[in-house]
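User: Can you predict the 3D structure for this chain?
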Amino acid sequence: MSRRDVGRIALVSLFVTALVTAQLTASKVLAIPLPRALPVVGATVFLPGAALAYALTFFASDCYAELYGRRETQVLVNVGFGMNFVLLALVWSTILAPAAPTSVDPGQFATVLGSSTNIVLGSLLAYVVSQNWDVLVFHALRARTDGRHLWLRNIVSTGTSQVLDTVIFVSVAFLVAPTLLGTGQPLPTSVVVALIVGQYLLKLLIAVADTPFVYAVVRTIDDGTGSESTNAWTVD
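Assistant: Here is the predicted structure, written as structure tokens:
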């Protein structure tokens, strides 16, 4: 088995693992203190627990896109979207099934694993839009730069897709869905804006910080046959 074959399995596994983890941890809200208060955001960044795992999905998909091409990466992203529904079905079937007397408390189990309707709608919509946008921008920049400047397409594709992801998720989960569906009290617009700005700044920092690791993964996995069947690539 070649390095590219092993790399393909490893990157798909990382993508799927991070995606499942993101879905299961989305309901916990993290509070990350800042060294100093920022305008709009304040002294603490609030973000869903899924944000950290979800950032890994963009890392994995960008590595995969560089090595295996746009079409295969879009298949990976869209199959992953479909698998979200399988995950939800499995989780909720377990929640609704009768519990044994020796089981953990069913109410606590449902609270931990059963994300609210708002969170599910927000995360699914944000996922399908932002991940497909990431793949399209990544390969548009790759074509424009003739395969050079991997750092540029990694940062720009992830940075712009994280804007879409953050705006869609926060707006739908905490403002739009509660208002239209009556599934909770919508947050004030000022709070929603603060959540969007704070989360995006942290995600952008992660996108910049993971760039050397993207280079390392691509260089380790590539076996000299190129990232796509007809085009050689460079990471300069």
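Residues 150-181 form the longest helix (32 residues). Residues 130 and 162 are 7 Å apart (CA to CA).
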